[in-house]
What we know:
By secondary structure, the chain is mainly beta. It is 10% helix and 35% strand. It has helices spanning 2-17, 34-38, 74-79, 269-273, and strands at residues 50-59, 67-68, 85-86, 102-107, 121-125, 130-131, 134-138, 143-147, 153-157, 167-169, 176-178, 184-191, 198-204, 209-211, 217-223, 226-234, 242-250, 255-257, 260-263, 278-280, 290-295, 304-308. A hairpin with an 8-residue loop joins β21 (290-295) and β22. 34% of the residues are buried. Residues 1-22 and 266-322 have low confidence and may be disordered. Copper (II) ion binds next to loops.
Amino acid sequence: xxxxxxxxxxxxxxxxxxxxxxxxxxxxxxxxxxxxxxxxxxxxxxxxxxxxxxxxxxxxxxxxxxxxxxxxxxxxxxxxxxxxxxxxxxxxxxxxxxxxxxxxxxxxxxxxxxxxxxxxxxxxxxxxxxxxxxxxxxxxxxxxxxxxxxxxxxxxxxxxxxxxxxxxxxxxxxxxxxxxxxxxxxxxxxxxxxxxxxxxxxxxxxxxxxxxxxxxxxxxxxxxxxxxxxxxxxxxxxxxxxxxxxxxxxxxxxxxxxxxxxxxxxxxxxxxxxxxxxxxxxxxxxxxxxxxxxxxxxxxxxxxxxxxxxxxxxxxxxxxxx
Length: 322
Ligand SMILES: [Cu+2]
């Protein structure tokens, strides 16, 4: 059963990371659909709104966080002044909580139409890392991509429901402004130049979302009284993304608490999966310590498996079987 789950996760990981090294695509701005542009926002009585606040905890073996080796680009190395840099996926706060968890209203707000905020959401590139690592944005809202680095980046969101694109951004280049036309939780973003760079964007139809910070807490405010399903998403701790849902009823002016606890994978994935039916396949990026394994019968893509020592699957992983 565990293996089945793992293979599914591997397959998802493989599918997410196929298509490395694609050519740059032109990326005309996506505009919101006419309906979204013209629909008037639903009036909400601000005197009755409530909030949901909570903490996202982690239970289990502390995930191993990958050290990022930036050697392929001296500009990136220099920016960190020789200090080691670690992947953000799998990172825990000192109080045992999880940062970078995207918490949002998944259901319960459909009956409302919300104005698209005119303020852009910024995604910065600094020291060849995305800042922030996880962010939320509304459908049709501008995502403004900035760079502080003296090296060229190639920003490449990999959506399932939105249009895929990748664009280069040279040092001192103007911000790249983009929009997403459909809700999607989450869109992974990578850099085609620096394979360790990873960000995640949550695109929502409502403004009710938050990202946990260094204390593991979140707060969603301005909720009209009602029944909501909230979901917490995390990039995970070695086996891909994880999600949890909670149902919360918010009364007028009420402040509700909704805590989440994610459980880590117990034991070593590596030792658990290296059975005789698996053979080593393609080690695409040994420097980043990723190994791929393939089932001996090569039966299907579902047999493709990826084992990482780390929780950060940022290597250039190709999905072909050998
Ligand atoms: Cu880059």
